[in-house]
């Protein structure tokens, strides 16, 4: 069967969505994570529980929210709780299986910066900050990350530790007394990465159709490790592609030209 | 005991220069009209507390009324950065501001601790995170039972909290439904609380018994301001004006455009302008 042409961003969102299952309870970040989680819900994982930090639990929006608290999230949720309850009972209480995050800067060990570029006191760029992410990164059982590859984003050393990933690698999380698994998956517009079981360094396990190792390296600020056997990511199916495009078209109509993804 | 007042009176009586103030609302029910009234009255030197200081804190900071912002996410949600707040941090325009940065979990816990009358909040947070290196208000405490090291932050105790809500009864009891955010805690943590509402009704007798209600004796003043959350939203009344949030990115990008917009849409109008803004949403 021939598959329609697709963009690297579409491949990223769809590859990320495939990592989710109906059994997951997922704390969803805005942007690409939100698109991936909703594509999963609308295709192979209809039972997935999506939680946004505004307090909406089990939400099923028809369009992607522009913010974490759009009205549609509450209207379609199983229940909505207060923000203190969200962070105390549900996140800190260990009820959430996957935290799905984006990053402005990321290093090879899944440490994330969304706070500042440059020095904290004299920033070159002041970014929005962590919001819920510092605790999402340590309280959800696993963390998935999705971002577009660039040498500015995927860096040797992040400027600020907004969310702790695997630190310096190896057992660094354990040494800090963090019992959750941490970053377990990175999906970019070019490849799927998983941490090495020992060193915890993100390693390319699959490249999207047509992507070369050279492209992966050129858009990454650290020396890329490839798994012994690198698979090719299966291209989007017609259903996955149609679901994502319908979702984005509805979203664009709803938000006046902005995709929310 | 809740006093029914015009917004102008409620702000003048409850907000003073130099106060620590929270205009809370988690995406939903953000008290824009109340903050605009504070801007019109030019009440300055404020310490602003807010989990997500979005557009309305961008406006307060851009007008030079804030000396300090305590926050956990300084973005325009889904759109980008807060350009006026960034300009103040990066370039000191129109004045430099001090920032105290936390995570959402810390802010939510700090309000809850304030509401509970505790001096600090204890939670499992900031593990491996860089904020504890740059914010001296983030410390740790050892659990006396298990020995586990936990994060501790000072509780929030605003001089005054402003929130927007759907309804107040004639007695001043307040109903909030939909995304309830951290508003209840922010009110109970504060010395004074001002609530703007969409509607004033006789009582809540025909409504669900468990809707979030702040009893009238927890509220200092109630002001009737239909549309007072715009461009945020009031569940059951009007939707979020996402286009306005997108438009703010353009307005706030330019100091001159920002200044003109504030004159035309805040300084030269009154709280009654809000009702028209939500018509059709």
From TrEMBL, chain A:
SUPFAM superfamilies for this protein: NagB/RpiA/CoA transferase-like (SSF100950)
UniProt keyword terms in alphabetical order: Transferase
InterPro entries: CoA_trans_fam_I, NagB/RpiA_transferase-like
Xref: Pfam families: CoA_trans
MF GO annotations: CoA-transferase activity
Coiled coil: none
UniProt protein name: CoA-transferase subunit beta
Record lineage: Bacteria, Pseudomonadati, Pseudomonadota, Alphaproteobacteria, Hyphomicrobiales
TrEMBL record, chain B:
Gene3D superfamilies for the chain: Glutaconate Coenzyme A-transferase
Molecular function in Gene Ontology: CoA-transferase activity
Keyword Magnesium among record annotations: no
UniProt cross-references to InterPro entries, sorted A to Z: CoA_trans_fam_I (IPR004165), NagB/RpiA_transferase-like (IPR037171)
SMART domains, A to Z: CoA_trans
Keywords tagged on the record: Transferase
Protein name from the UniProt record: CoA transferase subunit A
Natural source organism: Microvirga thermotolerans
């Amino acid at each position: 069967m021939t598959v329609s042409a697709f963009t690297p961003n579409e491949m990223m969102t769809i590859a990320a969505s495939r990592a989710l299952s109906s059994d997951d309870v997922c704390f969803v970040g805005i942007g690409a994570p939100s698109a991936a989680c909703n594509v999963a819900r609308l295709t192979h994982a209809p039972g997935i529980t999506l939680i946004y930090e505004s307090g909406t639990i089990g939400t099923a929006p028809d369009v992607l929210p522009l913010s974490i608290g759009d009205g549609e999230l509450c209207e379609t949720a199983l229940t909505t709780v207060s923000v203190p309850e969200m962070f105390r009972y549900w996140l800190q209480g260990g009820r959430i299986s996957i935290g799905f995050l984006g990053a402005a800067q990321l290093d090879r060990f899944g440490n994330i910066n969304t706070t500042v570029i440059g020095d904290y006191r004299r920033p070159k760029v002041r970014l929005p900050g962590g919001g819920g992410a510092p605790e999402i990164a340590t309280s959800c059982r696993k963390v998935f990350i999705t971002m577009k590859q660039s040498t500015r984003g995927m860096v040797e050393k992040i400027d600020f530790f907004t969310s702790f990933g695997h630190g310096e690698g190896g057992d660094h999380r354990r040494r800090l007394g963090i019992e959750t698994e941490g970053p377990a998956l990175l999906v970019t517009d070019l490849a799927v990465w998983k941490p090495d079981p020992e060193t915890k360094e993100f390693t390319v396990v699959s490249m999207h159709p047509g992507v070369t190792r050279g492209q992966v390296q050129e858009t990454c600020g650290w020396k890329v490790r490839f798994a012994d056997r690198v698979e090719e990511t299966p291209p989007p199916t017609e259903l996955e592609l149609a679901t994502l495009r319908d979702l984005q078209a509805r979203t664009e109509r709803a938000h006046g030209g902005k995709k929310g993804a | 005991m809740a006093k029914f007042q015009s917004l102008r009176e409620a702000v003048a009586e409850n907000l003073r220069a130099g106060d620590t103030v929270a205009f809370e609302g988690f995406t939903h029910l953000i008290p824009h009209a109340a903050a605009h009234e504070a801007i019109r009255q030019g009440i300055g030197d404020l310490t602003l507390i807010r989990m997500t200081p979005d557009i309305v804190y961008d406006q307060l900071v851009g007008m030079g009324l804030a000396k300090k912002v305590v926050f956990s996410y300084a973005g325009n949600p889904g759109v980008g950065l807060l350009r006026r707040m960034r300009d103040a941090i990066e370039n000191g325009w129109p004045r430099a501001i001090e920032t105290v940065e936390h995570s959402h979990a810390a802010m939510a816990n700090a309000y809850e601790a304030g509401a509970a009358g505790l001096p600090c909040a204890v939670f499992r947070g900031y593990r491996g995170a860089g904020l504890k290196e740059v914010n001296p208000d983030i410390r740790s405490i050892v659990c006396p039972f298990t020995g586990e090291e936990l994060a501790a932050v000072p509780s929030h105790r605003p001089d005054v909290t402003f929130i927007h809500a759907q309804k107040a009864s004639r007695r001043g009891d307040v109903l909030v439904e939909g995304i309830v955010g951290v508003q209840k805690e922010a009110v109970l943590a504060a010395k004074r609380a001002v609530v703007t509402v969409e509607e004033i009704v006789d009582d809540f007798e025909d409504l669900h018994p468990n809707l979030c209600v702040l009893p009238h004796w927890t509220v200092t003043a109630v002001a009737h301001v239909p549309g007072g959350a715009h461009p945020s939203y009031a569940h059951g009344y009007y939707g979020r004006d996402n286009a306005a949030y997108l438009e703010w990115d353009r307005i706030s990008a330019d100091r001159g455009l920002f200044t003109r917009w504030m004159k035309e849409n805040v300084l030269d109008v009154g709280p009654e302008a809000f009702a028209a803004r939500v018509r059709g949403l």
